[in-house]
């Protein structure tokens, strides 16, 4: 009946989308689907601004169950040994319409965490100055509707259950609990009769849908004969949904009888008491994995062939050690060396079901001890799987369980090492199964064994993103996940793709250009000192020094040198650049000394305050420039009115100094604001340094014609002093 269903609605706030250059640009949405959900509907709403800068845009939306989706919009390479499965995604186009609404339906979805990631196309790479242009806002919001059963019938194991499917429009939903150590599940449907006493046709769907890949099993039953389906390695300690739908006429109901049975294997392992003793010894002894604790553990966990023959798996106790956020180490109580036999697999449990472990990378490393292998050419097959282990690792199987596909590994005497990297592992219990595979017709395989050293850990970023990347911890509400931001042209999930990487020579050239181009301030400093503008010369020296060492520290590659904290160098560079423009324009105004120096100090304090508020805002530079230009124009108008002719009146001053200086300044601003990209930054920004420094040397006004710099008063031997006119001429024209 309809009253048995309950609808629920979950919503999250909209997020502003970004153009994609690394995973941090993708906007993540995290939802939790409750148990017994039979229908899931996503409501995806995308919108854009109404300004002329807004154009048609394609938004890509990715879905995944259990962990954030692993995406690769740029087509870069993943690290070696990493497992990558394509994410399920759809595209939403914003063309003429300002808003787009899209629905995505999922029937019988898996319960637990679901993630949605949305982003815009690849970033253009152009460096935009904040405030020069207004980017178009693209917004995205995801809402979730669920329809769940409040009293879903429970199918008891080994107990036949009769049920009725009312109509094809109302399928039957039941669930069965899978016990721990279940090796096989058998589902049987019988006594299928319609209300019209005709042969019925029904379809049975076992399991839930998970994205990007779904391994839901289907079974079609026709007539009254029994039909069954066997499932190897069903998910342990989970509810399994079963949906039965009628394929007959709309008005006919169907009566069926269902039966579920399980084959449970008996694990063989050391006793809990010995495990407890081993744990105490490893805690009180040397550090985990040391030689002392390994030797002690080997004594309490001997390899027993008779135990293998009477059990279907050998379980090894594993301790989970939480080190930091999204950082876990797994330690075996018996030491890193694991005995592996051929009769039954050795099983290790890797617990990743805390809800906060899916935002990193699971790394499993195997190392075979070649001297421990009893048979030549023997191979140790391994499989890493979620929810349930693979209990039969022979050559014909493809490391698959009932509802998932695992990740195979193998080590042998010819290839003794193997590594697996699972990017964003789903929230669940993970299992590592190991079994020795013997060549046919060689030796006694039952008594053969090998020893494999196992290292397993969860890390935010594999290899810490390497030397050309930075591991960043990202947050969406209370959920934390990690991503790599690459530099120096490197790319990929872990910054291992060098297809567009800069060579070391290019990195050295970029560092030299960005640092040595600041030496063009030396002519401006020399001109300022020669014309007795010592305060201005001090400001230029400060700017040259901090700009040089800021760009030496700001380099993405190996050619890096930081003499102090990066943030301090950046702040001093920005402060010196703006103050240099401020003092240069005020110096051109030819104000009285007292007024000029008061404006110097007051303007510097205000610039320092504004840079602290917003370091990259365009008005931090444009504001002081415009205000200083207003003061200069006012002063020049005043001087021209007093002298009754244009100021400066010398055409040589305009042609050879002011016009070249103004031209260089405008070219520098154009290069800085409109031409810089991530690829050409190192030479366009170097051109900016050269043009600004040269424009300062041209724009500095000449010294007072009545003042000779560094000239000491001349004294006569008769103790009479030649007087020098020290009056300041405000209206001198050269």
From TrEMBL:
SS bonds (residue pairs): 461-471, 486-495
Keywords assigned by UniProt, alphabetized: Cell membrane, Disulfide bond, EGF-like domain, Membrane, Transmembrane, Transmembrane helix
Lineage: superkingdom: Eukaryota
Stretches that traverse the bilayer: 509-533, 594-613, 619-638, 654-675, 681-700
Location(s) in or outside the cell: Cell membrane
Membrane disposition: Multi-pass membrane protein
Pfam families: DUF3522
GO cellular component, one term: plasma membrane
Ranges where the EGF-like domain occurs: 457-496
Listed InterPro entries: EGF, NGX6/PGAP6/MYMK
Family according to the record: Belongs to the TMEM8 family.
Protein name, UniProt field: TMM8A factor
Gene assigned in the entry: Tmem8a
């Amino acid at each position: 009946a309809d009253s048995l269903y309950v609808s629920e609605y979950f919503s999250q706030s909209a997020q502003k989308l970004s153009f994609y250059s690394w995973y941090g640009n993708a906007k993540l949405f995290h939802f939790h689907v409750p148990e017994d959900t039979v229908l899931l509907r996503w409501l995806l709403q995308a919108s854009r601004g109404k300004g002329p800068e807004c154009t048609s845009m394609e938004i890509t939306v990715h879905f995944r169950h259990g962990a954030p989706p692993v995406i690769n919009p740029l087509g870069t390479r993943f690290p070696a040994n990493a497992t990558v499965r394509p994410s399920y995604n759809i595209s939403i186009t914003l063309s003429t319409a300002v808003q787009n609404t899209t629905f995505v339906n999922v029937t019988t979805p898996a319960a637990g965490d679901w993630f949605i990631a949305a982003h815009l196309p690849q970033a253009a790479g152009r460096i935009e100055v904040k405030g020069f242009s207004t980017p178009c806002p693209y917004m995205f919001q995801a809402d979730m509707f669920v329809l769940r059963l409040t009293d879903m019938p429970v199918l008891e194991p080994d107990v036949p259950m009769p049920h009725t499917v009312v109509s094809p429009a109302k399928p039957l939903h039941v669930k069965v609990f899978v016990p721990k150590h279940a090796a096989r599940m058998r589902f049987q449907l019988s006594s299928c009769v319609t209300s019209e006493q005709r042969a019925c046709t029904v379809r049975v769907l076992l399991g839930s849908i998970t994205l990007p890949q779904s391994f839901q099993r289907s079974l079609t039953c026709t007539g009254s004969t029994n039909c069954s389906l066997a499932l190897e390695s069903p998910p342990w300690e989970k509810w399994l949904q079963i949906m039965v739908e009628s394929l007959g006429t709309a008005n006919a109901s169907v009566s069926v009888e269902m039966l579920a049975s399980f084959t449970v294997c008996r694990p063989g392992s050391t006793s809990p008491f010995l495990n407890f003793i081993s744990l105490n010894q490893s805690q009180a002894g040397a550090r985990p994995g040391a030689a002392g604790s390994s030797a002690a553990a080997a004594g309490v966990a001997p390899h027993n062939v008779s135990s293998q023959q009477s059990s279907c798996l050998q379980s090894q106790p594993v301790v989970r050690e939480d080190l930091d956020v999204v950082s876990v180490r797994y330690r075996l109580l018996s030491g890193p060396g694991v005995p592996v036999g051929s009769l039954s697999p050795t099983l290790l449990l890797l617990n990743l079901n805390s809800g906060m472990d899916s935002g990193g990378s699971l790394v499993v490393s195997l190392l075979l001890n070649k001297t421990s292998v009893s048979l030549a050419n023997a191979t140790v097959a391994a499989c890493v799987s979620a929810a349930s282990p693979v209990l039969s690792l022979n050559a014909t199987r493809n490391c698959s369980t009932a509802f998932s596909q695992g990740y195979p590994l193998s080590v042998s005497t010819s290839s003794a090492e193997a590594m697996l990297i699972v990017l964003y592992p789903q929230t669940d219990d993970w299992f590592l199964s190991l079994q020795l595979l013997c060549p046919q017709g060689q030796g006694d395989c039952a008594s053969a064994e090998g020893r494999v050293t196992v290292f397993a850990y969860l890390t935010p970023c594999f290899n810490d993103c390497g030397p050309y990347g930075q591991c960043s911890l990202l947050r969406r509400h209370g959920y934390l996940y990690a991503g790599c931001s690459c530099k120096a042209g490197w790319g990929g999930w872990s910054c291992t793709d060098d297809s567009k990487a800069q060579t070391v020579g290019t990195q050295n050239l970029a560092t030299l250009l960005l640092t040595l181009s600041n030496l063009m301030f030396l002519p401006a400093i020399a001109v300022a000192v020669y014309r007795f503008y010592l305060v201005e010369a001090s400001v230029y020296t400060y700017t040259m020094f901090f700009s040089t060492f800021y760009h030496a520290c700001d380099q993405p590659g190996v050619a890096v040198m930081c003499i102090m904290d990066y943030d301090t160098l950046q702040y001093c560079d920005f402060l010196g650049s703006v103050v240099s423009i401020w003092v240069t324009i005020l110096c051109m105004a030819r104000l009285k000394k007292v007024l000029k120096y008061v404006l110097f100090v007051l303007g510097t304090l205000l610039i320092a305050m504004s840079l602290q508020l917003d370091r990259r805002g365009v008005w931090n530079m444009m504001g002081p420039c415009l205000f200083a230009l207003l003061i200069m124009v006012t002063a020049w108008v005043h001087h021209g009115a007093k002298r009754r002719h244009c100021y400066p009146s010398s055409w040589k001053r305009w042609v050879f100094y002011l016009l070249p200086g103004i031209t260089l300044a405008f070219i520098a601003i154009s290069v800085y604001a409109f031409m810089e990209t991530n690829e050409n930054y190192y030479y366009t920004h170097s051109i900016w340094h050269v043009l600004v420094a040269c424009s300062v040397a041209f724009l500095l006004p000449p010294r007072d014609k009545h003042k000779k710099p560094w000239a000491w008063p001349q004294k006569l031997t008769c103790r009479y002093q030649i007087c020098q006119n020290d009056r300041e001429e405000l209206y001198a024209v050269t």
